[in-house]
Amino acid sequence: MAFSAETCVAMHIGNRAEQQDRVSLFAHPKRPGMMMAVLADGMGGHSGGAMAAEQVIMRAKQNFESYAPLHEAPQELLSSIIDEAHTIIKLTRFTSEKDPHSTAVTFLLQQGKAYWAHCGDSRLYYFRDTQTVARSGDHSLVGELMRKGRLDEAGALKHPQRNVLLSCLGSEREPRIEYGCADKLDAGDSFLLCSDGLWAYFTDFELASTLRAHTPRAAAERLIQLARERGGGCGDNISLVIVKLVAPPSSAR
């Protein structure tokens, strides 16, 4: 079944002094029907995190513009963005007094298929109606404890070390990159990329239901409003991208 994509990019500074998240959505300059979304949650003191996250966005845009799908696999594109951004972020440590780090989530929509990669605890969700088809795993201490069955979702949200990452861009270790793909997309499917400033306040079902019931812009506004309310004055930076697949008008099918 044919579909088109409705999208929205949104951010909120939360209760932080600085917005260190970065997020972007762009089409390929020469190849119609191809789209990339990228989100990065920066860390590293005053302006250091923002600088790291900005490098992820810049590398994603540059690599996507030169991407040739006939000669390069989607996974190669996604991994090159994270690996090269990681190297650049590490180099900035030698030219500044900051210690910049960042998470990264990259998403590619190409020829009716979706591909994604991530490092850190920013997430990608893939929903079909209100069902969670896929969700990226957090590269964090609590994420690892959950994978080992030693912690549940409720405990993870209250864990005192829930912000400790085991892998991110800019660290001494090479980034841990995990991949996902979906090759049977259909109208009604939706994708959400978001930082922990958003996902920490919602169940999967709440997120999926909101995306299903609203346009991307209305869904983004509602999710940010609820995250701010639930944050109780202590909310982190919020960033998100929504990509919602919808059936085209009958005349366009």
TrEMBL record:
InterPro entries: PP2C, PPM-type-like_dom_sf, PPM-type_phosphatase-like_dom. SMART domains: PP2C_SIG, PP2Cc. GO terms for molecular function: protein serine/threonine phosphatase activity. SUPFAM superfamilies: PP2C-like. It comes from the Bacteria. Residues 6-245 form the PPM-type phosphatase domain. PROSITE patterns: PPM_2. This is Protein serine/threonine phosphatase. It comes from Thauera terpenica 58Eu.
